[in-house]
Amino acid sequence: MSFAVLLAGAYFKPFLTLLSGFICAILVVIFHYFIFYSISDCQIDYQQSRLVLFEVVETYSEQSPYYIKASLKNIESCSTGMRPAPNAMLSITSDKPVTSGDKLSAELKLKPYRSVKNFYSFDRERQALLERVFYKGRSVGEISYLNHHRYDSLRVSYHTYIEKVTANTQLQWLYYALLTGDKSKISYEDRKHLRELGLSHLLAISGLHIGLIFAVGFYSSKWLLRVSHLRVRQSIQLNKLFVFVGFCCSFIYVYLSDFIVSASRALLMLGCYLVIYNLGKNPVRWRSILYALSVVLFIDPFALLNPGLYFSFLAVTIIFLLTKNTVNLSLGFLKRFAQLLQVQCALFVGLLPLSLYYFSGTSVIGLLINLIAVPLVGLLLLPLLLFYSLVSSLLDVSGLLSIVDSALYYGYQLLLSIPNGWRWFSLNEFSFSLLIISYISLLLLYFSPNKYVCLIPVCIYVVDSELQPEAKFQLDVFDVGHGLMVMVSHKNKAIIYDLGPQYFGRYDYVRRVLLNNIIKQQLSVIATIISHLDNDHSGGLTSWQMAGFQDTLAIFHPQGLGNKCKTTTLKLDELNIRSFTAKVENASRNDQSCLLKVTGFNYSVLLTGDISAAAETKLVEAGKDLRATILISPHHGSNTSSSYKFIGAVNPEVVIHSSAYQGQWRFPHPEVVNRYNQHHIQQLSTAEYGHIRIKFYEDKYRLEFAREQESYWFEQD
What we know:
Helices cover 46% and strands 18% of the residues. It contains 25 helices and 22 strands. Helix 4 (154-165) packs antiparallel against helix 5 and helix 7 (207-228) packs across helix 13 (366-391).
């Protein structure tokens, strides 16, 4: 194959250029990965503590134990390399307050960073990789405070100043985000409203904001030179001077916004555009886009993992496609508005597949709102905020902002009065293959002289979808660390077994994992069963009830969760669902666990809670029908369970251990693994595979794993 590639490059010169580009790209990716994104060669043993010198980057809790993000400056017995210091998420127990900038020394137990991984859920491991968070750990012993680094730089002073001058306004979060790029002041509800209204992009410092700042610097310097009446030699190219001043203003704006990703990309694109322009080339076509994209990926090829890269460059590409033929400033107001509408419609259609793929929906009314919001924010509000922030250091002009704030807040409330059904359209099943098909069709529609050709990819996708066999029912074993959360679904109906753990008294997996999967798969929950009230099985109960699923507990828990579950049988169309318990005298909470057996289509699934060997023996002696195709191992694979008699009675083809990666108890226990191996039973663990999904068909079942299906080569263990 190598010889064939070289031969093609020798005979076809354009292919040789393309081949060189690919080789260069591969080398850049390898360089960045091993220098900036790979864990060092230092071998970390979680059972052994190490003396670590670290600096606190950010704190996430206000009391001990403090949960922090830290930069590891030095790890005992690990050599210091040339690469930047790696980051870690740490749990620190300390009597003294821990704040950003503290430089500490402590004995830490470290292990490589690893988070849960589920389908249809935010990938924390990938985000950690992009932030260079390579480890997680906890402190053991005393903490030594060395010093405190004060982050009183120009950037911090600027943020503090903007926060002060925009205080006492109803939309401070809006003004603060536009001027600093920091969205931390935006509440969850406002973020949700902005997304539904299609206005989230206005708060990201992007090409619109950078271009405006450049224009302010360009024309301000031009005006100052004119009013100053300075004599300038004709040999000096004043236009280049004005361009330089405008670019410097844009650079300062991006610096003060802490070089956030969207702002940096826009600045690079502006720089490429200006360089090409000053070289006498045609900048309003593809050179500036391609050069800017090349520079961005050369600086950080892992920016390809950020969805914002695709939204920003695709939006600029669409605008460039239409700019040459549609935008004519000499036209009247109505024709300009028609052109703006055309560009906005093109952006809506062009970005629609990306929005459906990444956000499972799109703003319905956003197309109309943006026709007003984009000029309002870009041409009026942002210049006004810049003027206000500059003048406020000399004069008290807070009254001006108060008037604008009242008007904008009134308009914002009017937008919120729009019914939810008009704001957001959801389309849950939008796969990557459908994303590719959509853009192939759009390209054919735009460039092909025969427009009907664009229907060919769509027809291929429809035929392929119709030929795919439909699963009879589905089992989802979610990755929740040390805990259990399972969903059985059939014909858009679902039964939930256990709700996983809760951490820090507030975090659970119901909202971020379970509800996302229910919405994505468009399921209706018929019943919920809690095996027992240990935190790792019922921690998400409060969130589940708050989400409106309180009534689903009534079938199996008519007398409340404090009592044993009701022994009953429930039919879910063709599925039979039977609940039962083991009759153990003086049973512990674990042995009171409610078991669930799902039977249908010649398959069966047995869910066992946390029963021990004593309960297993009682079930076998009572002659319970325990045979199952799939078994969720009792007590996460603890050695107190999974006895030989029980394994023989169930005789599963597959056993699934719901356990944490390198957890405190190191489940599944090696002896349990050995017992299942002696029966030649396939074993799977959520710690290793993440979310495990089993689809049952007429004559077979298929296993799907979150870690294998949604991982890149650099994320593999």
